[in-house]
């Protein structure tokens, strides 16, 4: 409970006149500041069920009205597929209806990579001010609040992988040095420097940037923050990468499979569970305990909940047909539902950090998610799974310290190592049967996710991997 209200009541309260006026006053002040910085327009963004960032924009002079009354949009965007075709679910579909986009002024920021523009993630409401049941940001806030009601917070961050091409159609790697090689930094030093400068000026705290394994591939890691902030930052980072790439005559792909037969882009999620109500300040439940690899009992239970629901979670975190071209054994993609200490072939990798900082650094890395995922939905589902593990007091099986693909099938079964779904259809079937996720996400979200996933399955029915990769390459 939060005061006399439930978590759901606190975070699903409709906008009233007082709240509208408060937001409008704040937006008017923000608009004056932005105008003084020569910003002309604000992009209001949301991420659809297919994982594509959509937008409506307003001139700075209309920001006050947008914050007060919202910007109209059709609910049908929730059932857009990645090729912009439209399916229908039981809760949404068709041309009728209207929603309102309201900018989150706490996350309003000028875009260094797009001079003259600012960005604000949008919350979605009905015309009467009620929270839209398919609004993923609201869903993530609710899951965060449910954990907070029990005294827990989560710190999280997305790793962003992308591949850079010199051409906008076929993929032509923009660099040719070896995987992880300094040569790739030298080849695109100006581009990478511009990216780091733009991210810094936009307020993103970058931990590291490095060349990755696949041709033309890089990765950037950012500082952990609260779940909604982490999802907002993931969107902001990707759009900054896209803009800086275009400014340098390059094209960025975040697709799970840029080229068939090559390593794809992951969207790894890092999470740590923290107890906020200790006498000595926040305490990381992933360290300092007597459980496996130093986890506390709560940290272990949270991890076990995620591990238990990983097959169903794939319908959220690996949501495209192309995802299953990436999610194959022995490619560091995490194709088996198991966990292991620093095991990059386990779907759930436990990271301790260097000795001496483990109380701050220990965390879980979900390796089977990719860049097609809606980051808000992905985190909401992960938090729900972890919360279920906490509520049930789950324990982890023994860690796996080898590539699970190399274990005999009988040994995998004995060690509770399960292969994850190998197709999107298989993942959707498991997802629809998962009572924990259905309860946390709600019927509207569950049904819409399943409808969109089945739409993409039908879209690529019988398509060759090369055709799937080509059709997906520039969409996310």
Brief overview:
The protein is α+β, with helices and mostly antiparallel strands. It has helices at about 5-10, 15-35, 65-70, 135-150, 180-185, 190-200, 225-245, 295-315, 325, 360, 375-390, 410-415, 425-430, 435-440, 445-460, 465-470; strands at about 40-45, 55-60, 70-75, 100-105, 110, 115-125, 150-165, 205-210, 215-220, 250-255, 270-275, 285, 335-340, 345-350, 365, 420.
Please give a structural write-up.
It is a single chain. By secondary structure, the protein is of the alpha+beta class. It has two domains: about 15-90 and about 100-135, Ubiquitin-like (UB roll), CATH 3.10.20.70; about 140-470, Glutamine synthetase/guanido kinase, catalytic domain (Creatine Kinase, Chain A, domain 2), CATH 3.30.590. About 40% of the residues lie in helices and about 20% in strands. It has helices spanning about 5-10, 15-35, 65-70, 135-150, 180-185, 190-200, 225-245, 295-315, 325, 360, 375-390, 410-415, 425-430, 435-440, 445-460, 465-470; strands at about 40-45, 55-60, 70-75, 100-105, 110, 115-125, 150-165, 205-210, 215-220, 250-255, 270-275, 285, 335-340, 345-350, 365, 420. Strands 7, 8, 9, 10, 11, 12, 13, 14, 15 and 16 form a ten-stranded mixed beta sheet that branches. Strands 1, 2, 3, 4, 5 and 6 form a six-stranded mixed beta sheet that branches. Helix 4 (about 135-150) runs parallel beside helix 11 (about 375-390) and helix 8 (about 295-315) packs antiparallel against helix 11. The longest helix is centred in the middle third of the chain and has 21 residues, at about 225-245. Residues about 1-10 have low confidence and may be disordered.
